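Data availability excerpt. The first of two example chains:
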Amino acid sequence: MSNASKSVRVIGGGLAGSEAAWQLAQAGVPVCLTEMRPVKSTDAHQTDGLAELVCSNSFRSDDAYGNAVGLLHEEMRRAGSLILSAGDAARVPAGGALAVDRDEFSDRVTATLADHPLITIDRGEIESLDDLGDTMSIVATGPLTSEKLTQSILAVSGEDQLAFFDAIAPIVHKDSIDFTRAWFQSRYDKSAEGGDGKDYINCPMTEAEYEAFIDALIDGPKTEFKDWERDTPYFEGCLPIEVMAERGRETLRFGPMKPVGLTDPNTGTRAHAVVQLRQDNKLGTLYNMVGFQTKLKYGAQSEIFRRIPGLENAEFARLGGIHRNTFLNSPRLLDPMLRLKAKPTVRFAGQITGVEGYVESAAIGLLAGRFAAAEALGRDIAMPPDTTALGALIGHITGGAEESTFQPMNVNFGLFPPLPGDETKKTRKRGRDRKAAQAERALNDIAPWLSSCVGSSGVGAAAE
């Protein structure tokens, strides 16, 4: 088989796998995308659609010059990302964030990949890395990697654990919310261009209501773990709300229930605490409870969350839940091109590599797809500059992080190298000026890298 005719297998039809398959096919490389649903279901998915959003419907801040994830959005758009293209098309109001109608988003990704002439979608489970033989492959099975494949990865990598717990927030029917208590407002009235600063539903709490709510969270019955799960740690960036409550009674008031930037129109004052809900579909009929991922049992969730002012008669489209996530110690196991050192024909992509967040997972899928396409075509490809969000993120997981303490990481400006002038306090930029300067440098530096990918690797055609 010549280099020009090599095909690549992508395992996992989530955000990373879908993006990797798209990047490969756009480069002219045939792809077999294998997704085990609906042949085998998971504890969290509800459909067999590709790129189903299991937890939140938000891709977080879309501010390219003030937030690292917003910068990552922009770099991915310029790289022809399918995930960002579908996300922009399925967008719903969410202040300065990019949030999507999750069903429309998944439908768009699924249809786009199914219609591509170089992509074959195969439904079934890959149980072992041995099943891949010598075929160039990308494993993007994410946080819900099946137990058999997990054990195979452990055996090949020599690791003894690849897992942590993640939790899901509930979704509420808007027409069941009491708007004599709740109101629409974005924090500090912030909104996307053309918005009205009213992208979130806010439910206020007095001090007494808040204290009673904390007691209920702490005392409520929780999901019991299986014996083999008991030592699995939580990821700090997605703690169940009751675990946060147990860490201190004020923790939630300085986290997802912080009242700052919000004024209750019924009182003209700031509430003691506020529960926010964010639009979850384009029709505006469903809203998810921001930051309310939980391991409370279903009956307790319904009872406790209906104590929130405005949600006394809430009807839930989906209650919260908890599932076991899987990630590699990537600094130890992967090379800079995301190949498994012990089996270089296999790359890993997405959340399983130890990135946290939808966008970060898709970004690593984008890079894995481009790297695999270049290899399949027999062409060289450089790493993205470490001054970019793509480069900083992959640099962290494949070498920048400490092996002994490696944990999943969101993209953030702390991963970027210093700016010119950082040598002294007098010349160092601060605050938003610093972020804007880092973003400007990143977007300047990503352009020649993207051009070189198109010119020398055939990778980089934009999503239509």
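And the second chain:
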Amino acid sequence: MASSTPRVWFIRKYLDPGSRLEEILCGLVMVLTFTLIAGFTAGEGKQGVRHLLIGALGCNVAWGIIDGALYVMGNLTARRRHRRFLTLLRDARNESAVFSAISGQLDPLLEPATSREERAGICRELLPVLSRIELPPAGITRNDVYGMGAIFWIDLASVIPAVIPFLIFSSEPRFALRVSNALLIASLFVVGFMWGKFTDSNPYVAGSCTMLFGLALVGVAIALGG
């Protein structure tokens, strides 16, 4: 228990609850898709089981790397957008240019509920605060790398429910495969249940919907060739 605490703390620090649940869901869908497809093609006996487990592990390792890289790219894009906005404010030569820069960010949100004069007043109130904000870094940060690591760990840990039955029922690979798939489907429900609690929804309804949604995604992936 003590050894898992640092990993849990690490993931919680660098990924918000919604992102964690989303990553677990994606990891489970990936593993379940692979095990369902591989179950029809893997050979019998220990050699077939070995190939299936190595394939499932490799599938999620690859997905963890890809998803982590996309996470870093998303963070870079968001910071560059914020940096560009703050730079526009600092380089503005007159009040009109300042209001134009702020309005570009606020108008889509405020225009339906405010008048032009009200938005101008909001711009005047925000300008002193925005002018004091430091420019975000333009490159990759340490938190980006740590967040990428947290995503990789979640995707890798998603393989665990698929592996355990093969370790327990090593002499009955087909039965172990069925138990593995059942555990993965149950894990989809658990993820949805936790998602429901996080969003103040009915956790049982959220769990059932997430499980069905996950199975539908698996079905689409299999139908389109995995």
